[in-house]
Design a protein that fits this description.
32% helix; Trp Operon Repressor, Chain A; alpha/beta; binds 5-[1-(pyridin-2-ylmethyl)indol-6-yl]-1~{H}-pyrazol-3-amine
């Protein structure tokens, strides 16, 4: 997108500063996987992504993080980014013209495989599989909404993929974007050490992870499971797998059914709700 020249008194102009801001400019390697985030709250980034493994990898230039301030693409004295919902109702909706200019600016300098995603509770569910697919892309543009969401027409025009990180409503897309980026960045080669990368294999089997223990073997009168002290590596692996199956069956009947289908076993009918499912609100009346 070509920008109009900056005018010192131009109240209708787009700000000349409306460009991606690299949060680690001096270290980003050319061609590194890049997350470009369009948001009204760029100060929310890197947030948790600046810590630990993702933060180290960001500083090492193994991936790049850029933000675009959505308000920079608003025009007029008040630089409004939202307006009232057409047809009535509570709250405000993000304007299609402002979001369109921001997404045009975000598309500048991108090439190859670079999906554009809008985080929304109406989206297709985010998954480990989607994280793997995004990690193989050249980058991703993430649109973070606020208020009641974004005018549908700009999402249609720009073929934006709507993605949800879970069935709950957040105040805005920024935390959801950080979840998606975190899950993706840890799959980029060399971001995780070898010790951590093994953990990945377990989830891709479609089961929940087995419980973990560390020293001391007796803590507060509670013992570590004896099998883990036996030194029988095959027995330990067998025990952990059984734990994974039991946990998955108890907490995640959806994953359990899919696992049984994959491994050619029969699902069991008429199971009662477990404590975990009751706490999760399963079996509650929907309103
Ligand atoms: C968001 C809102 C729709 C009313 C922008 C919520 C994603 N998995 C997710 N949970 N919540 C979100 C999310 C992402 C972006 C926005 N809202 C709030 N959304 C209807 C209110 C606004």
């Amino acid at each position: 997108m070509s920008r109009p020249p900056a005018r010192s008194h131009g109240r209708l102009s787009i700000r000349a500063s409306a460009r991606p801001r690299d949060l680690m400019a001096e270290t980003a390697r050319p061609g590194a996987w890049t997350a470009r985030v369009v948001t009204l709250f760029p100060e929310a980034f890197p947030g948790a992504l600046g810590l630990s493994l993702t933060g180290k990898a960001l500083a090492e230039g193994l991936w790049a993080l850029e933000t675009l301030q959505l308000r920079d693409f608003a025009t007029g004295k008040h630089r409004n980014v939202d307006d009232t919902p057409t047809g009535g109702g509570a709250g405000m909706v993000m304007r299609p013209d402002v979001v369109d200019r921001a997404l045009a600016a975000a598309a500048e300098g991108t090439s190859g495989d670079w999906p554009v995603i809008y985080l929304s509770p109406r989206g297709v569910p985010f998954s480990q599989g989607m994280a793997q697919r995004l990690a193989r892309a050249d980058g991703v543009t993430l649109l973070c909404g606020r208020f009641e969401g974004v005018d549908q027409r700009v999402l249609d025009k720009r073929r934006v993929l709507e993605v949800s990180i879970g069935d709950y409503v957040l105040t805005g897309g920024e935390l959801a974007a950080q979840v998606l980026i975190d899950a993706t960045v840890r799959l980029i080669p060399r971001v995780l050490g070898n010790a951590e990368s093994a953990v990945e294999e377990s989830f891709s089997e479609g089961l929940l992870e087995h419980p973990q223990y560390t020293r001391p073997n007796d803590w507060d009168g509670r013992q570590v499971p004896e099998i883990l002290l036996s030194g029988h590596h095959a027995k330990i692996a067998e025990w952990r797998h059984a734990q994974s199956e039991a946990l998955t069956k108890e907490r995640r009947p959806d994953l359990w059914r899919a696992y049984l289908a994959r491994t050619g076993r029969d699902p069991v009918e008429g199971q009662e709700l477990s404590d975990a499912q009751t706490i999760a609100g399963k079996g509650e009346q929907k309103d």
